[in-house]
Amino acid sequence: MNVNATFFAELIAFCIFIFITYRYLWPSFSNILEARQEEISEGLEAAIQSQRKLEEANEESRKLVEDAKSEASSLIAQAGSRGDQIVDEAKNQAIEEQKKIKDSAEADIEQNITKAKEGLREEVAALVIAGAERILNKEVDESSNKDIVDALIKEL
Amino acid sequence: MAEKNLTENLIPTADYISHHLTNLTYGWCEKSQSWGFAYHQQNIFKETSCKVSEMGFWSFHLDTIFMSTFLGLIFFGFFGLVLMGAKKGVPGKVQNFAEFVFEFISGAVKSNFHGTSKIIGPLAFASCVWILSWNLMDLLPVEMTNFFGANLVNSEGTSYVGYFKVLPTADVNAPLALALVVMFFVTFYTIANHGLGGFLKEFINPIELVGYFSKHVALALRLYGNLFAGEMIFILIGIMFGQFLLSFGQTLWFIPGLMMNLVWALFHILIIALQAYIFMMLTIAYINLACAKH
What is the mean predicted confidence (pLDDT) over B251-276? Predict the structure, then answer.
């Protein structure tokens, strides 16, 4: 163990190495690590944000699906009621049509009846007149007795 | 006859140990009034050169200076190269390792130092990395550098650099230089935070002055002592099994020697890292204390 001038050489060398570390190594290590720290924290922040966005999107999509579902069910209900309505309308129309047909048929019948009555009446009138002629054995002037005949026909 | 040969083969133990513990020294020789390598470490001016012990203060341990600077360049260069190719995104394996080291040290600084200082981080980093790089040299086989050095022989068959201590920590100058820098910063921060009066007031009790110096000398000697002792045990293991091998002529002695070296090396890995860590932590603690309000 002999202390000698080697000491000074070591002293200078140590100071130089401290300076190198102080000037170059330490700051660049700090810079790199700080930059990475920042990057990592940014990345984590972004991850959290995207997670939040994902949740929002999930929420939104769920809402959309729900909306669509309710819309669809309302549409189905609407369609059902509309169908009912159509059926009702068709039924009503059919009933109306039926009624109309029936009415017209009744009217026809009525008409035929009146026509037949008219015809009968005329025939009866003719028969009455013919009978009266036979009874009276003389020609009855139809035009002169028209009032009587008409009154007779009306009584039929 | 055979016995005589055996004893001749034995290496003088004291020589072996002193050989391993002698630094490659270049210094001012009072005797010859010139600069030069120490006696035994060169072969040219044997008559005029001093022994290592005869050299005064003005001598340099070239192996310590070379190894510490070389290792520093490798380790700090490693970090520099990693940073040059560093990416701010996902790091590679090497960058990850370098960042781990940095974060480990800066974490230790952050949790133990409560003041504001820009130099303490780099100081802790430089001391920890540099000391660790030195201490790792303790794991090289103890005989290796001498073996290679001994092969660099000149025409007279003597080694030029048979002396080469590869472990800078086992030379007290290196830890002492680190401790002096720490002491400088401790003093600087004490004066900066408490004023010169505050600094001097600490020494009203003169025993504090002893404490002030011994604190930093102990910082150096703790590191030096641990690594020196570790190196010493490697040397002793080497001697023991080397002597067994030479005395009994059994090459198989190589195996228990290797085993013991392995066991000690595995345990020593702990000391290597621990001492670098302790030095760094104490540096931080001392400077924190200097900055603390009290």
Answer: 87
